[in-house]
Amino acid sequence: MESIPNIASLSPVEIRKLIRAGKFTSPTSGLANGYTQANLVILPKELAYDFLLFTQRNPRPCPVLEVSDIGSRKLHKFATDVDLANDFPKYRIYRNGVSTGEVTSVEDYWQDDLVSFLIGCSFSFESELIAAGIEIRHITENVNVPMYNTSIPLESAGKFHGNMVVSMRPIPENQVVTAVNVTAAMPKVHGAPIQVGNPKAIGIKDISKPDYGDMVSIKPGEVPVFWPCGVTPQNAIMQVKPDFVITHAPGHMLITDIKNTVLKYE
Amino acid sequence: MESIPNIASLSPVEIRKLIRAGKFTSPTSGLANGYTQANLVILPKELAYDFLLFTQRNPRPCPVLEVSDIGSRKLHKFATDVDLANDFPKYRIYRNGVSTGEVTSVEDYWQDDLVSFLIGCSFSFESELIAAGIEIRHITENVNVPMYNTSIPLESAGKFHGNMVVSMRPIPENQVVTAVNVTAAMPKVHGAPIQVGNPKAIGIKDISKPDYGDMVSIKPGEVPVFWPCGVTPQNAIMQVKPDFVITHAPGHMLITDIKNTVLKYE
User: Fold this and answer.
1) pLDDT tens digit string along A220-258?
2) B76 to chain A: which residues are within 8 Å by CB?
3) ipTM attached to this prediction
4) Interface contact A56-B52, CB threshold 8 A
5) C-alpha span between B16 and B18 (Å, rounded)
6) What share of chain A is helix, strand, coil (3-state, %, to 5)?
7) Chain B residues in contact with A186 (beta carbon < 8 A)
8) Which NCBIfam families match (chains A, B) (predicted)?
């Protein structure tokens, strides 16, 4: 994290202004504790109906928090003083499904036909799990969460199709029920687990080799618990190889004005 | 209800087949107890993105259960053996925002660019309220639920905008908490109330004069409780006066294969 005094104590709008000014370009984990952070997908309008329908049909891996108006860099609900082209610390530009690099502003790439999708992120439910006394192993071990391709088919919608990607967190057997209950109450950020304890049942052959992120230790008495993962929509988009897509860079999220607790009752 | 022997004991698919054959054209209230019934809006594709976004931004009054593929009369999830052009007992055809009559099949009106939206209905939560020991007054009094225009603005999306329409049920003071809890658990069918006890706060000037449906008696010790209502999306559409829209006729719903209880955990 860059050396900005007291950044951990700043409000969402204060942090967004620092990011907008180019003064903070790091991952957002740990910032504005308690506020929802969001993933980003920006697509041309011609793909927006199929993608919105894809998220409607697959809400567990693709929980849409908000969709911008066509061409707009503003939001109505999750943030007021916001510029979607500058308020993520880092973006990725994709052309024909291939990443062409990371930038800290997409102002120069903006087009009048772009639609921005804010998608819920498991950061929100992890802070609730920690509050419920559950250790999040990848946080303890300071690595990225392990993620896997699965055999769980998604409902296709127009051009978009694919299988679900899941994230895995080892949970002590006696805390599995708590973990299910805490996350089931948060459907806007992936909700309850999709599988408990049996990776082979969802097509994961070797749990020690995640397809994305890093492996974490699974201790005696713990079971691997799998949640629908926000990598799913990005994966589905890249299979379509659209001419032009913008996403956030992994870990570099939008910090919204909405608290995780409020999100539970939306 | 038409005199079909044992109709109340038939399964959803059996009832849909009777309806498809033109043998049942009445309201569906009380049929296939425990199964979700759905409202219908059919729009041309050119309006579908704006309308889908409108429902995403206003999920409480416009809870989308499923959206068909473009031009398709089938569903993926809520019913397998289904024909959307024949399986509602009665439809309304609108041209330029004006109803031009009711029909029992829309097969002859079908176009390749039509998209069907199935929208959740308060029938689902009423059966749960009754199971929780709460009397539903308009059922007891055998009239339509009272509904009101409000001053609660909706989030607009493209061409669609408007205010929320609400339904009202009188609830004894000592059952209000139960009514809130039961319905809050069912966000796919409007979820928790939007207002408890103060009609003026949401712009309702005279509770004895509903804008739609019929007034019911409010007894001493009861408070009026207001829920987001499925008339909201139809109202918003008619303000746009599209060239061509099909809806179900009020009370004449699709009986789906999905149980209300399952819907709670979707």
Assistant:
1) 999 999 999 988 998 899 889 999 999 999 889 999 999
2) 57, 155
3) 0.89
4) yes
5) 5
6) 30, 25, 45
7) none
8) PRK05463.1
